[in-house]
Structures are given as structure tokens and as C-alpha cells.
Amino acid sequence: MTVFIIRRLAQSLIVLLAMSLIAFGGVYLIGNPIDILIDPNATEAERMAAEHALGLDQPLWAQYWHFLVNLLHFDLGKSFSASIPVSDLLLQRLPATIELTIVAFLVSFLGVPLGVIAGRRPDSLLGKTIMAGSILGISLPSFWIGLMSIIVFSVWLGWLPSTGRGDTITILGTQWALFTWDGIKHLILPGVTLALFNFALLIRLARAGMQEALMTDYVKFGRAKGLFERRVVWLHAFKNILIPIITVQGLELANLLTGALLTEVIFAYPGIGRLAIESIHFLDRPVIVGYMMFVVTTFVVINLLVDIVYGIVDPRVRYSGGGND
Amino acid sequence: MTAAVLNVEHLRTHYFTRAGVVKAVEDVSFEVRRGKVLGLVGESGSGKSVTGYSIMGLVDHPGRIVGGRILYNGTDLLALSEPEMRRLRGSRIAMIFQDPMMTLNPVLRIETQMVEAVLAHEPMSRQAARRRARDALGQVGIPSPDERLQAYPHQFSGGMRQRVVIAIAMLHNPDVIIADEATTALDVTIQGQILSEVQRLCQSHSTGLIWITHDLAVVAGIADEICVMYAGRVVERGTVDDVLDHPAHPYTFGLIGSVPSRNERGQPLRQIRGTTPSLANLPQGCAFRPRCFRANEICTNEPETMSISSRRETRCFHPLVAQPT
Ligand SMILES: Nc1ncnc2c1ncn2[C@@H]1O[C@H](COP(=O)(O)OP(=O)(O)OP(=O)(O)O)[C@@H](O)[C@H]1O
Ligand code: SF4
Ligand SMILES: [Mg+2]
């Protein structure tokens, strides 16, 4: 297992390097950030001074080298546009995204029991209704659902706010909205909108898994032992369908944590995804690169976690050492 | 003669598929006596497993028992409610499946799977249930049962796994055990061990055993009585010696001829010509007609079961042994 983790970390280091190179090169290709950052009427001297201050006057390889050296000290540099450290910027935005992720994740987990119910009786009216709902949830684009829910719940009914984060309280220097009533109200619409796709996905995964599991011999043997159907379904079959669900949920969690770009933009929600979009507008290279580093790291960490959880759920993985992937 | 614990009378189990009605079991009758072994023989698809599931009350959708009676100590199982049936399953009537790799749940410890089987029928403390499980493992010849309880199925060999399954089936000293191809997936030496193990246990607990197999040689070694099935019907029934020495039905005759035997070494094996008919599309009259060397005009009618002697029946217009007049 340790060998496996070390190998994984080495691999992800390479990915990190590659990503930072791509980000650097990509921004360079799109344009010179200085054109966006300074007043178009600035003099040549002012421009040179600004370039010098941001280090943009050095050749690209030197800038990259500088970035790498700083990275070794866990320093992602300063934002071009906001002039504060990128890591501060990310940390500022992260709580909002984490809260949104938690809400969306919890809401979407409702799909699991629904999928199990549908999988047990796929031909019943209830089973068919659940399945139809999940098809809608998967095929309707989230921006459409987001806009519709704003129209209905914010504009027509006026029940829920449609933008921003609402009141927050400060805990350990970061802002959290999940602990204020106003904050919770602000989380509902984006949270549910964001949850819908994963909710529908979980219905399908659980339904397909359940249908398959219920045909296996171990389920039949469980029944032949005289177990209650409850136990056969919710222990024997359920524990087996968790394996594919965990895989997909790991990716989904990473997706949500790295920012639900579309949802955050629609609801003007100040999370990390919107930060990424904003920084691309400004060609704010340190932020873009920092954001990408964050994305890659999140994926690596979550994949590692998924592998560990695998071992807990599936004993066959545990003993083989998990090294052969 | 010992009384029958289980009487299957004119059992009919059909699958209502989209492609039509599959008559998987069509008029099957036999008796199981305490401490005796009934061999249920027939080629793949002849309805042996479905007969077993019918007795257990475990016929899956879209299947349904459409006729007949299954008398357990005189009570018709088909008239029981699901809770009543559950109490019998695994405690009075147990079933063992073909593939020990699939019968045990891969993600649960042996302990969990055994303790739950104990507790499903007898309320007791977990410690007591665990002791029961451990003793049962010891009884089927599993070394250091205390440790093995902690293991997962994949840590056992195929033969050991089947022993675990047998131990589970024997937990409540059932009156009847249905063993569905219980040794087919194992290699030959293990097969012999398991076979004699099961035989010994059933005899010492005077459990009636239904041994389902397509292998006549196995049946010859273990069974007291034989039922030969073809296309969902019992075509011949009698004591092992009678049936194997003097087969009455042409299909049984063919089956016996296709088993290699010592005194015919060097000669080509006889094979039954033709292939198993599709159950959805059976020939008119006797289902064996297209493959039968004795078929004639009359055989386009459906043959009824008739007795040849006491406890000896066949379903054929032209049996190969003399009929009583
Ligand atoms: N779920 C099902 N849906 C439709 N038909 C089924 C189903 N299960 C069984 N059958 C039908 O019942 C017939 C008998 O099946 P069964 O499993 O009892 O055969 P078997 O004698 O046990 O054969 P084998 O030696 O291959 O195990 C099969 O031909 C199959 O067509
Ligand atoms: S009834 Fe006719 S076709 Fe069927 S087995 Fe007997 S002889 Fe053959
Ligand atoms: Mg079978």
C-alpha cells in the first residue's frame, strides 16, 4: 500500500508539472496580461514598470523557473489583478465551494435509496416514475434548470434568493454561510441545481447495480438461508453495489470541489469555480495556474481516498495490495 | 420404508417471458424420504434448478408456479404465506448452489454470513450464534474454524468454500437439502470428498437429500432413487439399480449409453442424436420424439406417466422394459 501511494504521488507530481507548463504556455499564447491589466493610455515607461513589477519582462522560461522555485516553498505567487497571494484568494473562495459541494452531495445521495427501490421493482409504476425522473435529471442541462429555478422560486414566488452567499460567520478566519439561516437559504437553489445531475446518476447506478445484484447466487442463497428480504437487499446486495458508486462519486466529488463553474456563474456564487472564470477574463496567470494546481491536487487526493475506501468495502482489493492498477 | 418428508406432486412452473411462456417445469412429481438421496438428473435446461427453486419458494419474476402441490410433512408449501415460508427456508429445507465462488457474498465475512443464518431462525446472543457457526465449520472438516470465521470467501479454495456453504445449509439440521450441482464446479478429488461428506451428514441427521446433477456417474454413486428429467418433465423414476440397469425411457437409455464405462473401454461412446429442444418451441406430443429411436405415430400424442412396477414410473408409449399387464 505504501509503495502504491508513493507511486501515485510521483505520478501526480508529473501531472502537476505538465499542467503548470500548459497553463503557462496557454496564457502566453492567448495574450499579454499586461495589456488587460494596465490603463490603455499608460505611457511606455509606466508599462515597463508594471511589467517589471509582475516579472513579465523576463523570458518565459525564467518566469516558469521562478514559479517552480516558489512552488517548492508552497508559494503560488501573487494575483496580477488583486495583488494578494493566490493561496489567500483560493482559501477565501474555498469555503463557499465546500459548502455548495456538501449541500449538493447530501441532496444527491437521496438518489441511492430511490435507485434501489426502482431496481427492486423496475416494472412497477413507482420504479418507472423514478427512472423517468432520472432520465430528465440527466438530460436537462444544468444552466436551464438553474435559470428556471431562479424564475420560479426567486422571481415568481420570491421564496429564495438567487445570487450570492448571504450572511456568513467567521470561523478560524474563514467565512462560512452554512451556519446562518440566510446563508442556508442562499445555498438551496444552487445546491439543488448542482445536485440534480448526480442525483439522477446515482438513481441509475443504484438501479442497475441492484437489478444485477438481485440476480446473483449470493442473493438467492441469502434468501435460501431464510433471511428477511430487508437484509438481503440492504446488506447483501447493497454492499456490493457500493463499489461502482464509490468510484463515480469520487470523481463527482472532485468535480464539485474544483468548482461547479456553470452553477456558480448562474447564481453569482462566489466559489472557486467563478474565481477561475474571472481569472481567465483577466489573464491573471498566477491565479489560473494556482487554480489548476488545486484541481490536480484535489483529484489526486480524492482518488487516493477512493482507493482506500475501496479496500474497506471490497475485501478482495485489500489483500492484493492494490498495486496493480 | 421411511415416510416421505417432501412430496412434489404435478409441479408446474412457467416463465412468462416476452417471447412467450416457457414451461420450465411441467408436471414433475417425486418423493424425498428421510435419510435417503434422490438424484435429479437431466441435461442442461431440463428444469432441475427451477424445480429446486420452486420447492424453496424462490422462483424469480417472470416465473410462477402455476400448478401442483409441494407437501412438506403433509403441509402444502404453496399455500403458505411468505413469512411462514421464510421460517422454513434454511431451517427445514435448505439449498446448496452450484458455484461456491458465487454463493457466498464476496464482501461479507464468513462469520457474518453464518451468524445471520443462525439468527434468522433462532434468536440467541451473537456469541452463541458464533459458537454454533464455528462448530458447524468444524463439522464439515474446516481446520481452525475460529480463525476461518474471520475470513472472506475469496480467502478459501473452491472446495473449502463449498464446505462452508454445506455447513450453512446444515446449521439448523434441515429435513431436506436440495443440492443443485453442488460438486460440478469442483475438481474430481474434491468432488468425491464433498459428496461423501454430504452423504454422511445427511445420513447421520436423517436429512432427505435431493441431489441435482447432469452427471449420471455421480448419481449412481450417491442416490437411492433417480428422477430423470427431460424438457421440464420427469420421464423416468425408480430406484438407482432399476433405472440404471434396466432403463425404461429411451432418453434414460441414451444417457446411460453416453457415460463411459469400464467394460466398454475402447468402444466409441454412444451419443443421443439431436440437441435439447427449446422449451418455447417443443415438438408436438412427446418432447423427446425428434431424438428418439423408438418413436412412431402414437408419439405425436402426449405420453402420460405410467407405473411399470411399484415405485417405478416412466413417461413413454414404448418403454424399454416389460410393462405389467
Ligand atoms: N428467469 C428466467 N426467465 C425465463 N426462463 C427461465 C428463467 N429461468 C429459467 N428459465 C427457463 O427454465 C428452463 C430450465 O432451467 P433450469 O435452470 O431449471 O435448467 P437446469 O436443468 O437446472 O439446467 P442446468 O443443468 O443448465 O443448470 C431453462 O431452459 C430456461 O429457459
Ligand atoms: S413416447 Fe415415443 S418418442 Fe417419446 S420417448 Fe417414448 S418412444 Fe420415444
Ligand atoms: Mg441448474
Automatic annotation (TrEMBL), chain A:
InterPro entries: BPD_transp_1_N, MetI-like, MetI-like_sf. The keyword Cell membrane applies. It comes from the Bacteria. CDD domains: TM_PBP2. The keyword Endoplasmic reticulum does not apply. Pfam families: BPD_transp_1, BPD_transp_1_N. It is found in: Cell membrane. GO terms for biological process: transmembrane transport. The chain crosses the membrane at residues 12-31, 96-118, 130-157, 187-206, 257-277, 289-313. Gene3D superfamilies: MetI-like (1.10.3720.10). One of its GO terms (cellular component) is plasma membrane. Residues 93-310 form the ABC transmembrane type-1 domain. Keywords: Cell membrane, Membrane, Transmembrane, Transmembrane helix, Transport. Its main location: membrane. It is a multi-pass membrane protein. Belongs to the binding-protein-dependent transport system permease family. PANTHER family: ABC TRANSPORTER PERMEASE PROTEIN, DIPEPTIDE TRANSPORT SYSTEM PERMEASE PROTEIN DPPB-RELATED. This is ABC transporter permease. It comes from Propylenella binzhouense. The lineage of its organism: Bacteria, Pseudomonadati, Pseudomonadota, Alphaproteobacteria, Hyphomicrobiales.
From TrEMBL, chain B:
PROSITE patterns: ABC_TRANSPORTER_1, ABC_TRANSPORTER_2. It is a peripheral membrane protein. Pfam families: ABC_tran, oligo_HPY. CDD domains: ABC_NikE_OppD_transporters (cd03257). The keyword Transit peptide does not apply. SMART domains: AAA. InterPro entries: AAA+_ATPase, ABC_Ni/Peptide_Import, ABC_transporter-like_ATP-bd, ABC_transporter-like_CS, Oligopep_ABC_C, P-loop_NTPase. It is found in: Cell inner membrane. Keywords: ATP-binding, Cell membrane, Membrane, Nucleotide-binding, Transport. Gene3D superfamilies: P-loop containing nucleotide triphosphate hydrolases. SUPFAM superfamilies: P-loop containing nucleoside triphosphate hydrolases. One of its GO terms (molecular function) is ATP binding. GO terms for biological process: peptide transport; transmembrane transport. Belongs to the ABC transporter superfamily. This is ABC transporter ATP-binding protein.
